């Protein structure tokens, strides 16, 4: 009771709001002495070595958290989605047709065993470099193996076109 | 001593608003730059500095400092008595801590605040070295420099105030309260407990707070208190009773003036005085006799005030008033005789 009676309601003086704009030069110059003393203390602490520590450096793309967001569409996510679909259903003709060639070729390249040969759809064996050779050369099946012909092109380039034209007599 | 605490008072009352304004600027800087810098380590350090400043604001330093100054100055005796009496309560008495314990907590916080400020400044100086975000880093460095100086100076002043108040709370003292022309002496006797003194030691780049516990000597305390009790109370009581007996006419005139100007706040004041005497009985068990005398004096006053409005029976009232005075006088003699016997 005594404390309640004697206590006066202490109305705190309202603090003025912080300034909307700060004149940077005046602000720093008015605190020059404190800044110098603080600078000398930090210099003593750091031994005048102001490099940032290596374990505290960050990548420049650390701000990019779009990969975590599912709503955003990007190439990376498309690739990821396709890979997931492949992993689930395995190779099927429908999916095989829909895949872009580079993706399909990469997937075929992953199927190489460490030793020996892998087999294609029919029972002919494939070389380890089959994926690359299939890109650049015409392939035939000889002696149970799927082999490149080692002739230039696969019949779709300019030389092939010229040959076809000459045989049919299109020129003159 | 007087000039010392006056300079401390002037200094700390000028520094606390500065600290408030710097805190406001820091919060605005953090608010504006949070989106751009929030993952970086220097900004995490800044957030820790801001957290400490918010804690310090919630500690309410201005109230603590003003109550310390009331105890040291003594220009408001009632509040001084109330504050000194609150020091006798321990922590486990209730949820509230007394102002000395809160001041000790604030001093500990102030001592802890310097290290995050220095770490934040060293991180921001790396920005300076790389000349990244120059406007931001210049402003933050200036802010932290001023904050460091303010925090350490306030810590020194708080420590010296704490030591002054603790030395006052240890010593015995009598406080004079005058209320409507009536003088009352209240005696304050300290609890014989351990007390704490603070000390600041400068270590390489900041102050470190040291707390030392001391014990009061119980034997000398008891002897001194016993001796002083009889002397002070006897002097006080004799003076007051003689003043009553000697100045009858003046007292009557004053009472009539009070009757003419009777108002509600007078009643409120009387209630407050009664409450104060009640609390005094609870607080000071050693001084029961002196308090009983003062309560009897109050009872006499209240009876006189009750009797006064009937002005037609002035003669009978005078006779009635003379009787309690004699009784009071006789009782004091009896008390002094009992003390001499014991």
TrEMBL record, chain A:
<dbReference type="InterPro" id="IPR039182">
    <property type="entry name" value="Pop1"/>
</dbReference>
<dbReference type="Pfam" id="PF06978">
    <property type="entry name" value="POP1_N"/>
</dbReference>
<dbReference type="GO" id="GO:0005655">
    <property type="term" value="C:nucleolar ribonuclease P complex"/>
</dbReference>
<dbReference type="InterPro" id="IPR009723">
    <property type="entry name" value="Pop1_N"/>
</dbReference>
<feature type="domain" description="Pop1 N-terminal">
    <location>
        <begin position="52"/>
        <end position="170"/>
    </location>
</feature>
<dbReference type="GO" id="GO:0001682">
    <property type="term" value="P:tRNA 5'-leader removal"/>
</dbReference>
<protein>
    <recommendedName>
        <fullName>Pop1 N-terminal domain-containing protein</fullName>
    </recommendedName>
</protein>
<dbReference type="GO" id="GO:0000172">
    <property type="term" value="C:ribonuclease MRP complex"/>
</dbReference>
From TrEMBL, chain B:
<dbReference type="InterPro" id="IPR027951">
    <property type="entry name" value="Nepro_N"/>
</dbReference>
<dbReference type="Pfam" id="PF14780">
    <property type="entry name" value="NEPRO_N"/>
</dbReference>
<feature type="region of interest" description="Disordered">
    <location>
        <begin position="266"/>
        <end position="291"/>
    </location>
</feature>
<protein>
    <recommendedName>
        <fullName>Nucleolus and neural progenitor protein-like N-terminal domain-containing protein</fullName>
    </recommendedName>
</protein>
<feature type="domain" description="Nucleolus and neural progenitor protein-like N-terminal">
    <location>
        <begin position="7"/>
        <end position="163"/>
    </location>
</feature>
<feature type="compositionally biased region" description="Basic and acidic residues">
    <location>
        <begin position="282"/>
        <end position="291"/>
    </location>
</feature>
């Amino acid at each position: 009771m005594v404390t309640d009676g004697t206590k006066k309601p202490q109305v705190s003086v309202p603090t003025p709001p912080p300034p909307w704009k700060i004149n940077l030069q005046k602000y720093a110059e008015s605190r020059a002495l404190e800044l110098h003393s603080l600078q000398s203390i930090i210099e003593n602490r750091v031994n005048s070595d102001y490099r940032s520590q290596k374990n505290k450096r960050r990548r420049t793309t650390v701000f990019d958290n779009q990969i975590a967001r599912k709503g955003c569409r990007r190439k990376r996510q498309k690739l990821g989605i396709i890979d997931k679909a492949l992993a689930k259903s395995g190779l099927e003709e429908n999916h095989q047709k829909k895949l872009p060639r580079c993706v399909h070729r990469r997937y075929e390249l992953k199927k190489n065993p460490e030793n020996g040969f892998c087999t294609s759809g029919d029972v002919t064996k494939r070389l380890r470099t089959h994926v690359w050779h299939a890109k650049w050369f015409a392939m035939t099946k000889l002696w149970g193996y799927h082999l490149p012909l080692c002739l230039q092109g696969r019949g779709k380039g300019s030389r092939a076109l010229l040959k076809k034209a000459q045989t049919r007599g299109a020129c003159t | 001593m007087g000039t010392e605490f006056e300079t401390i008072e002037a200094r700390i009352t000028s520094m606390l608003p500065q600290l408030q304004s710097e805190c406001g600027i820091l919060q605005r800087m953090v608010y504006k730059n949070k989106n751009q810098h929030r993952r970086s380590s220097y900004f995490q350090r800044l957030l820790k500095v801001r957290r400490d400043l918010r804690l310090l604001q919630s500690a309410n330093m201005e109230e603590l400092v003003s109550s310390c100054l009331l105890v040291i100055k003594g220009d408001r005796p009632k509040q001084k008595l109330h504050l000194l009496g609150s020091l006798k309560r321990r922590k486990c008495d209730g949820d509230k801590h007394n102002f000395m314990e809160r001041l000790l907590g604030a001093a500990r916080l102030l001592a802890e605040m310097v290290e995050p400020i220095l770490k934040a400044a060293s991180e921001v100086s790396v920005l300076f070295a790389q000349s990244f975000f120059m406007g931001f880093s210049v402003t933050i460095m200036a802010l932290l420099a001023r904050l460091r100086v303010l925090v350490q100076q306030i810590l020194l002043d708080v420590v010296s105030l704490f030591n002054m108040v603790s030395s006052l709370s240890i010593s015995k003292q009598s406080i004079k309260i005058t209320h409507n022309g009536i003088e009352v002496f209240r005696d304050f006797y300290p609890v014989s407990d351990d007390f704490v003194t603070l000390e600041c030691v400068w270590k390489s780049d900041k102050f470190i707070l040291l707390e030392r516990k001391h014990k009061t000597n119980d034997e000398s305390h008891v002897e001194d208190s016993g001796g002083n009790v009889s002397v002070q109370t006897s002097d006080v009581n004799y003076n007051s009773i003689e003043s009553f007996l000697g100045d009858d006419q003046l007292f009557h005139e004053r009472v009539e003036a009070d009757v003419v100007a009777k108002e509600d706040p007078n009643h409120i004041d009387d209630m407050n005085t009664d409450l104060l005497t009640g609390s005094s009985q609870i607080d000071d068990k050693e001084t029961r006799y002196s308090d009983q005398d003062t309560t009897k004096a109050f009872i006499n006053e209240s009876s006189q005030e009750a009797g006064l409005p009937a002005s037609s029976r002035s003669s009978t009232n005078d006779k009635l008033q003379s009787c309690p005075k004699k009784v009071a006088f006789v009782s004091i003699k009896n008390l002094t005789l009992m003390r001499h016997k014991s």
